Amino acid sequence: MAPLVWFITGGNSGFGLLLAQHALAKGDTVIATARSVAKFPREILTSSALLVQMEITESEANISTAIDDMVEKYGRIDVLVNNAGFGHVGAVEEISSEEARYQFDVNFFGLYNFTRAVIPHMRKQGSGVIVQLSSGAGLLGALGGPVYSASKFAVEGLTESMALELQPFGIRVHLVEPGIFRTDFLKPAAEGRNMGQKKEGYFDIGGAMGGIHGSQPGNPQLGVERIYELVTGTGMAAGLQDQLRMPMGSDCYGMLKKKVAMLSETLEKFEKIAASTDY
């Protein structure tokens, strides 16, 4: 297989950094973005890595220009990984509308703008893979994270539809849905950040999430190996390139089973009501 050119947002930490390092170790080229180039560890500074200082909330025009420049430099982008994101936790009443909008600006509109900028190039080359980092919270809503879940549900809906419209152009689209992995994703909660204004009576999701920081069950290195295999059609993901979703972590798999059970119950109990409303 010829070396791939990857574009990874949020490439300075967590899944983004580990995936960048894994792809570089495989001989691929990686373009990685972060809010500050200074946040990249020195070990990623190789001739095959281009580190770009860019906010995920940059204007659509700036993002489009950056993508165009990278295609001109490398000739193509084979894989876009929309990894950048964060979680703002708290009940609906506890999170302000400004905080909710920013959650969507980062998790949805940032992803949306990078995706829109890459698609024309992938259509022109007749190939490409787009990987959207969603979450188990994009499958099943839970106490304490309605706005975060909403942003990931939006990513799921966008990507599910987009996969159908891009298939004729030879572009594959995947949703990667991690459960709770041992990255720094929960560090803000452990430090009391990215939480709504606490109100009496609501579940303390910030305390619960912060309390498990450092002991999450998911192994992020194994997670990025599975992502790389899904993109390249190798290893455990060989033959799964036609699958839209890849749940990661036994906890996420359990959430998916619960969602399927909920929907199955709805199908069974509401069949007659659904049919009763037709002409």
From TrEMBL:
<dbReference type="InterPro" id="IPR036291">
    <property type="entry name" value="NAD(P)-bd_dom_sf"/>
</dbReference>
<keyword id="KW-0560">Oxidoreductase</keyword>
<dbReference type="InterPro" id="IPR002347">
    <property type="entry name" value="SDR_fam"/>
</dbReference>
<dbReference type="InterPro" id="IPR020904">
    <property type="entry name" value="Sc_DH/Rdtase_CS"/>
</dbReference>
<dbReference type="Pfam" id="PF00106">
    <property type="entry name" value="adh_short"/>
</dbReference>
<protein>
    <submittedName>
        <fullName>Uncharacterized protein</fullName>
    </submittedName>
</protein>
<dbReference type="InterPro" id="IPR051911">
    <property type="entry name" value="SDR_oxidoreductase"/>
</dbReference>
<keyword id="KW-0521">NADP</keyword>
<comment type="similarity">
    <text>Belongs to the short-chain dehydrogenases/reductases (SDR) family.</text>
</comment>
<dbReference type="GO" id="GO:0016491">
    <property type="term" value="F:oxidoreductase activity"/>
</dbReference>
